Amino acid sequence: MVDDQPFESKEVSWNAFGLQVHGTLTRPRVGDASCGVVFVAGSGPTDRDWCSPLLPGTNGSGKLLADTLTREGFATLRYDKLASGPNAMENVPKLIGKISMQSHMEELSGAVETLIKEEQIDENCVFALTSSEGAIHALNYQLQAKQHRFKGLVLTGAPGRSIGAVARSQIQAQVQTLPNAVDIMRQYDAAITDFVNGKPTQIYTALPQVILQLLLSLTSPANLPFARELWSYDPAEHIA
């Protein structure tokens, strides 16, 4: 049987935040792959292939894109965030209260370093390809990195406003037909203001269940400080 896959794929790992980050590195079998692409997944438990247990389907758009780019001559590296993929159950208890913009920065920095250690990869020709929230982490890396900054950023599905602004507009659209919509938004805004400012957050139990679940998730010790950092990060402001 002839192998018609014109590229090599191997498992790689690196240390971040005292834990192992696991990923997949691909490169062409023929010719030199001088340029590389690091994939940065979207929010929640989205894995290296850009699949999530919270969403139906397993098409793995991240894997499909990586395979296609490798056939076009690029090396690629995609990875499971510490709270995603097959090691999530083991890692999450160790990450309670520790996930932050900095922990995501360490994951991504390790990915870049791992890719440029590959033979013949030009450290000045590495790009980021992101999905959704991944754009925020790529921007954060690009602004903080002292070396090995990305040659370019491809930001797919990137939020054009802060996550907080996006969430508020979505909630307002859902409740606008309710007779007490004004009170709901007033109570929601009050809770979010306390949350953003690091104050004890009063959660009104009369709020719709979907809003209660959101507020409880944001204020959960397991999601802090990252939830507060992410809520206020405005990609449009930083991309300038």
State the main characteristics.
alpha/beta
* Strand adjacency order, main sheet: 1-2-4-3-5-6
Query: Per the principal axes of the C-alpha atoms, what is the gross shape?
Result: elongated
The share of residues in extended strands comes to 15-25%
Order of helices and strands: EEEHEHHEHEHHHHH
Distance between the termini: 52 Å
Q: What's the total count of β strands? A: 6
SS element count, helices: 9
Give helix % range. Answer: 40-55%
Describe this structure in words.
- By secondary structure, this protein is of the alpha/beta class.
- Helices cover 41% and strands 17% of the residues.
- The protein is built from nine helices and six strands.
- It has a six-stranded mixed sheet, sandwiched between helices.
- The model has no long low-confidence stretch (mean pLDDT 91).
